[in-house]
Amino acid sequence: MNMILSEKEYQAFIMERLHKDNGYLEPRKATNFDRLFGLDRELLFQFLNDTQKEMMDAIANIYKDNLEETIINFINTETTKSGGSLLNVLKNGIEISNMPLKLMYNKPATDFNKELLANYEKNIFSVMEEVWASDSERIDLVIFLNGLAIMSFELKCNMAGQSYGDAIYQYRAERNPKTRLFRFKAGVLVNFAMDLEEVYMTTKLSGSDTFFLPFNTGNGTGVNAGKGNPPRRDENSDYSVSYMWNDILKKDTIINLITKFIFIETKEKEDELTGKKKKSENVIFPRYHQLDVIRKILGDVYENLTSQNYLIQHSAGSGKTNSIAWLAHRLTSLHDADNRIIFDNIIIVTDRVIVDRQLQAAVMGLEHKSGLIKVMDDKCNSADLAKALASNTKIIATTIQKFPYIVDSVKGLKDKHFAVIIDEAHSSTAGKDMAAVTKSLGAGEQEYDDIQDEIVDEIARNGKQENVSIFAFTATPKPTTLQLFGKLNYKGQREAFHIYSMKQAIEEGFILDVLQNYTTYNTFYQINKEVEDDPRCKTNDAKRQIARFVELHETNIGQRIEVIVEHFRTSVMSELGGMAKSMVVTASREAAVKYRKALEDYITKKGYTDIHALVAFSGKVKVKIKDENGNKEEKEYSEAGMNGFSEDKLAKQFDKDDYNVLLVANKYQTGFDQPKLCAMYVLKTLKGVTAVQTLSRLNRICPPFEKKSFILDFSNSYEDIKAAFAPYFTTTLLSNSVTPTAIYDLEAQIDAYYVLDPSDIDAANDLLYKSIIDARDKKKLTFYFSKAKKQIENYDLMEQTQIVSLMRNFNRFYEFLIQVSSFEDVDLHKKYNFITYLLSYINIKHPGGGFDLDGKIKATNFVQKKAEEHQTPNLVAQPIVKLPVADKFGLTEVKEERLSQIIAEINSRTGKNYDNDVAVKAMLQIRDILLKSSKLKTTAKNNTIKDFEFSYLDSIDDALIEGLEQNKDFFSLLLDNDEIKKQMLGIFTDEIYMSLREVGE
């Protein structure tokens, strides 16, 4: 292949490929272009006469010599009128004097109709170069379908010192959006800016505000995936953008895009001044990864039918709503090799209470067909869902929470085939809700000879169903999600079927990197006792009470609010032309109320009139707040009461210029898209997926503004937050798998307590599987559960807690195991059934509420100190994740310490750097203390090293506190950081275990 040296040669090369490889006509002369109507008259009428001769003759009988002008004027009117568009004309044609004319033929879903197939093949594709759209606007290439201009290209040659950026500039600065060829909805469907390496696109020219999207394949795979396109392998290989002429500009692809993908999105927004709703429209053209995932899924389903599940790991900013809408729509008409429809129903499942209306609008935007989609909104109940599943409605959108209530009421669905599309497959998809989905859709009319058969069938209906394929979308797949829906790669790891990574989305500019402009704050304070006695209390309970006391302390809140408000006013408020907004993430509903009150007090005191806050939390909460005289008064607060309007109006109200701060408590941390959100102030601990989802509320771009994000974090370290993002930055891989061995180990641990009678388990299951359970049966069941409960209560409180914990972990692990494997053990399933009901029946009573610290401690000397500022995260992907192992789920023993020791631990705050010698010396001191522990000596003598580890870890804090005076600074650091403590002291486990066993012997 000769090297392309100029833009002109690049144009000629592309046209040659389109003609020779893609069946386009010989390149047409630019003189054939009718700039007034944006078409090639000759080809338009060649198509009409070739495919619809009888209709053309009938119209000609009416309009005679004015035939051509009449048809062109009709087309122009339909494309330029209010509500009209070229897309609509291509899809639906026009009608003249009650006579329809098609302007494009779709590809039939089956090959039954030979005439339709023949007409489809008669669609005419052509290309022109150097097209004059007006006297001053010359376009490099224009693509035509049946004579109608549908795509424009501005080409640049990197070897001539220009790139796609120069092409984008031309579209923005030198192309008039009112020119017929570029007129929104009436002109070309899409405009491409393309050089030899990258492609960008837009469907709407708006001068300098024109927003271009990348249309690149992505460069690299796995952890190396990023923006752009793969570079050329050598001088003889094709160009990086060759997928455009090798794929995108092929006849089948273009028709497919027009008929199945491109749609007009209509949004309504309330005018803040008039209160009237304004409509805005946009032509949606799929980004490359969206087109790619739909085509790859359809291809795989065509081959494998309903035998597979699919995990789609697409980052925020990937356009997931439209991807789901396209997939749902395409699956409704997908046929197999024998021309049979593959899916009877498409079910879109979400864990949100109200199904996304945007999703419904996107589906309807693709095809306005009555009864195509049924949305189970908040007014619909589970009975409505059961009816919809049994009906002929093609697409059903519902919440996942409705399925558990229909499991026993639906029958006969096993003969139907379902595609289940899960929106955000990370929260409710590994437990009973997901099991209810598969059990419902796999339900049949089967009669059982005995309980054994019924249990076997119930186990089978928990896992992958032959008549159900699941398509799970998420940006942050948990290990359980990967196990449920991921595919095995050649290394034996489970991964997503398709990936559009966070890294690529950031590099392409679809989302922001929220780890930039990240500042952490440390809170320093002193805790003192207000009582003379030194009562004993549980460590974890006391720590929680003290942490809550500090968190809600008026001085602490006041200082943080001052930092937040002043930072927002000086660094954030002016962003986005003064429309910037912020979110304050609080740790509790009480905190949300108190911080909102403190914010109002502060801005009133300072005389600020440019900050107005809303609050978001569920239900009602009672809060003690000081009145003007300093006395605490308890009042009940609700979100609606504090905001002055109902909860369902909050998102719309916050979008207005009237409000710019939103304080939240476990609300709006997921699924909340507000592009004007620029800053987040974090006042609670965030871990794992929750951290990623919460902070990602900031990552939405807000064109045409160059948005920046800011985070001030009072509760988390920057390294912990980076660690939370690392598994989801590129690709996420599951390295281990679930096995029955672990569940049998848990069963053995439960059996060792002798609290479950096998004969009771059998008898209870006989009753549970009866078609009708009468009062006598219920009395018997109560006896069995009461008997087991009493057996558990024979143990002390600590062991009762351990038994219940084991049972809960057994159930959770077993539920997951039967969903992801073909595991079948009837006796184990009976035990699972029994334990499920038993856990609902028992209620371990804890003696009192522990020691109440209210009024017994005080906090002073609060200081909010800026710790670190981070501009460039340099995040390194950590793609490997692992499933939790069943025997690691158990609780560690809750130890007791004196209140003075706990206060000493929490008050320990250091900012020093420890050298190696100091650290080693400190470690040896701790080891010596642990070696003197009589408690550990007894434990080592009577247990294996694995069981010894639990007691060992519990004893570390005692040892640290005992030796606190020897090395106060370093010991305090370990007391404050569990991860460092376990990591460093774990190296002595074997040594101390062996030493103490020798002493014991």
Account of the 3D structure:
This protein is of the alpha/beta class. The chain has four domains: 7-261, no CATH class; 286-500, P-loop containing nucleotide triphosphate hydrolases (Rossmann fold), CATH 3.40.50.300; 518-734, Rossmann fold (3-Layer(aba) Sandwich); 908-1000. The chain has a seven-stranded parallel β-sheet with strand order 15-16-14-17-18-13-21, sandwiched between helices. Strands 25-28-24-29-30-22-32 form a seven-stranded mixed β-sheet, with helices on both faces. It has a six-stranded mixed β-sheet with strand order 5-6-7-8-9-10, with helices on both faces. The radius of gyration is 33 Å and the shape is globular. It comes from Paenibacillus kribbensis. Keywords: Endonuclease, Hydrolase, Nuclease. InterPro entries: Helicase_ATP-bd, HsdR_RecA-like_helicase_dom_2, P-loop_NTPase, Restrct_endonuc_type1_HsdR_N, SWI2_SNF2.
What is the rounded distance between the termini? Answer: 83 Å
Low-confidence stretches: 844-851, 886-917
- Into which percentage range does the β-strand content fall? 15-25%
- Oligomeric description of these chains: single chain
Overall number of structural domains: 4
Give me the side-by-side strand order of the main sheet: 15-16-14-17-18-13-21
Biggest sheet record: 7 strands, parallel
GO molecular function, one term: ATP binding
Keywords: Endonuclease, Hydrolase, Nuclease
Protein name: Restriction endonuclease
Domain Helicase ATP-binding: 282-500
